[in-house]
Task: structure prediction
Amino acid sequence: MLKRLSISALFFWGTAEACSCIQPGPDDVLRHLDGASAIFEGTVSFTTQTDDHDGGLLRKTVFEVTDRIIGPTIPLIEVFHLQGDGGNCGLDLTPGMTLVVIAYESRSTGRLHTNSCASPGAPIEAYRMAIANKPR
Result:
């Protein structure tokens, strides 16, 4: 008696990357206030590609600031980030979008940077209230 055995195998080559941060929630407000260089609400004026980066395309986005919690007191703020591809913790920002931005100053370049892991888990009013209630 002859038996036939069929084996199928599926192989994937290359690497798969995924953004592995835990999305922030309301309890992260104080942590953001202690570590962030800038927290503001702004509208995307424009975004441009600056160069290639290990994790993807590095972009510079210029925001027109509509409300500021901490950070520069200028009307336009440049923030650098990776172009989002679903796995690199980058952001897909388009002109006209209004959002709360939490950014950190790079020690090596002095530029503000952000990513999807720094997304606020609370509205801007929660940051204002946390500052008002913070022990001095």
